[in-house]
Amino acid sequence: MKVEDIKTKERIPLKKYVTFGIGGEARYLAEPRTIEEVKALIDFAESEGLPYFILGGGSNVLFPDEGYEGLVIRMAALSQIEVDGEYVIAEAGVPLKRFILVARDAALSGPEPLIGIPGEVGGSIVMNAGLREREIGELIESVTILTYDGIIEDLPPSELGLAYRSSKIQDVGIIVRARFKLTPGDQEHIDQEIQRFLERRKATQPYGVKSAGCVFKNPEPDVSAGFLLDKAGLKGFRKGDAMYSDIHANFIVNLGEAREEDVRFLIEEGKRRVYELFGYELEEEIVLVENPGGL
Ligand code: EPU
After folding, report:
1. Quick one: what percent of the chain has pLDDT higher than 90?
2. What is the pLDDT of residues 223-256, one digit of tens each?
3. Is 58 left (phi over 0), alpha (psi -120 to 50) or beta?
4. Is residue 86 within 8 Å of residue 55, measured between CB atoms?
5. Is the distance from the beta carbon of residue 214 to the nearest atom of ligand 1 less than 6 Å?
6. What is the pLDDT of residue 280?
7. Which pTM does this prediction carry?
8. Which of 23, 137, 142, 160 is buried deepest, with most CB atoms within 10 A?
9. Which of 227, 235, 284, 287 to mutate to test the pocket of ligand 1 (most atoms within 8 A of CB)?
10. What is the pLDDT of residues 72-114, one digit of tens each?
11. Which alpha helices (H) appear in 15-148, and where do they start and end?
12. CA torsion through residues 64, 41, 8, 143, sign
């Protein structure tokens, strides 16, 4: 298979592909449709010495204003999903929402609390997305990884290093598919739970605006970074078009044409104030991508 055969574009504005709506151009952006195509792209990048970045739903990523001088491999077209009894098998690019609704349609319970998280299956597992009631890692039977040695292998959750908003998957390779074990339930009840969690999310978080979800991890299980940032007076704090949300202080929203540098400034200011007031060193949950080349 030739790389030219795989959907590849040049000089593509990354802001279109991330929920923050921020980022310059990618040198190349490719959208593989099969696992073999993912492998071919990585082989190509490695043989050319071209840095690459795996992009899922783009809901937790801040790209540089000057762009990414490498290959961005966008997983969205890897989007097959099927139900097999109590199992749902989803490729990395399946949006979480679709996974949740397919499970509901099959009267399978488990992922309902994740509704409203804008990511895709792959990225959500890599960062073990979730909330107090549910982390996606709890639902995994196995994941299929394309290792950096080019081998496709299935790993059980015990080998993924899953923890609060993190995993060790990126040490091994790229997630291409996941097999979830869900619990048969009552479809109407599942649907009600989906609505309940969605309404709660809409009431407590900025929704339908440009953001990348929570910016920082909670420093302790019962200490909310949002609470600390709020107490430190950051709600509504703004630089350019980037602003700490006045609904939930752990979200930075893009009011229009925010730039990466504005967001980075707000991140540093949030860290500084929370450290000075409360002694906590906040750690980013969002991925701050560096431009490997410099355009
Ligand atoms: N709070 C404030 N001000 C704020 C934000 C929160 O006072 O600006 C208070 C709330 O009133 C509440 C407490 O802090 O008493 C906890 O707030 P919340 O229930 O919103 O939970 P959180 O710890 O701030 C976590 C996750 C969210 C997830 C919610 C679901 C992290 C970093 N955040 O937020 O996940 O949606 O629980 O309840 O773990 C994400 O990871 O991107 C994310 C949004």
Report:
1. 95
2. 999 999 999 999 999 999 999 999 999 999 999 9
3. left
4. no
5. yes
6. 98
7. 0.95
8. 23
9. 227
10. 999 999 999 999 999 999 999 999 999 999 999 999 999 999 9
11. 35-48, 96-105, 121-126
12. negative
Residue 107 Ramachandran class (φ > 0 left, ψ -120 to 50 alpha, else beta): left
- Residue at token pair 């949002």: 226
Q: How far apart are CA 218 and CA 284, in angstroms?
A: 9
Ligand 1 pocket, mutate which of 250, 251, 286, 287 (most atoms under 8 A from CB): 250
**Within a 10 A sphere around the Cβ of 43, how many other Cβ atoms?**
13
Q: State how far the Cα of 179 lies from the Cα of 18, in Å rounded to an integer.
A: 26
Q: Which domains does the chain have, with CATH numbers?
A: 3-77 (3.30.43.10), 81-189 (3.30.465.10), 206-288 (3.90.78.10)
Distance CA 222, CA 100 (A): 27
In angstroms, rounded to a whole number, what is the distance separating the alpha carbons of residues 104 and 99? 9
3-state secondary structure of 266: helix
Q: How far is CA 166 from each of CA 18, 222, 287, rounded to the nearest angstrom?
A: 20, 17, 12
Residue pair 241/202 in contact by the 8 Å Cβ criterion: no
